Amino acid sequence: QVQLVESGGGLVQPGGSLRLSCAASRSIFSIYAMAWYRQAPGKERELVAGITRDGNTPYADSVKGRFTISRDNAKNTVDLQMNSLKPEDTAVYYCNLRLTNTSWRLLNGYWGQGTQVTVSS
């Protein structure tokens, strides 16, 4: 069993920045990928950004150029730097750990409890 604990969510004005962090309870050095997903009210959970052990980093089109995902294998953490935030970025953000290479569309692997991000003036 793997536990993932997210932190860093909150309320921010449009155009502002937030940094989310996810700490895993085990080594992430050898796992296939870490990712951030989000779910807005009434919408399906969607991939925001992922990072594989090979360094591939898929991003949702809506966040390209604004968000950056990074992982620190020594600290067993994965971060999501979010800049130029928009109201449509408002959602609960979930950390995800994936042990195997499966489609990002599949909501498998281990999940954190989620952290709320609200972008509003």
Search tags:
single chain, mainly beta, six-stranded mixed beta sheet, globular
How would the blueprint of this fold be written?
Blueprint: E1 4-7, E2 10-12, E3 18-24, E4 33-39, E5 46-52, E6 67-72, E7 77-82, E8 91-98, E9 110-111, E10 115-119
Parallel strand pairs: 2-10
Antiparallel strand pairs: 1-3, 3-7, 4-5, 4-8, 6-7, 8-9, 8-10
Mean pLDDT: 95
Number of strands: 10
User: Uncertain segments of ≥5 residues (pLDDT<50)?
Assistant: none
Shape: globular
Spell the H/E element sequence. EEEEEEEEEE
Report how far apart the termini are: 40 Å
Strand coverage percent: over 45%
Largest sheet: 6 strands, mixed
How would you describe this protein?
The protein is mainly beta and 121 residues long. It has strands at 4-7, 10-12, 18-24, 33-39, 46-52, 67-72, 77-82, 91-98, 110-111, 115-119. The strands form two sheets. Strands 2, 4, 5, 8, 9 and 10 form a six-stranded mixed sheet that branches. It has a four-stranded antiparallel sheet with strand order 1-3-7-6, with no helix packed on it. It is globular, with a radius of gyration of 13 Å. The mean pLDDT is 95.
Short précis:
Helix content is 0%, strand content 45%. It is mainly beta and 121 residues long.
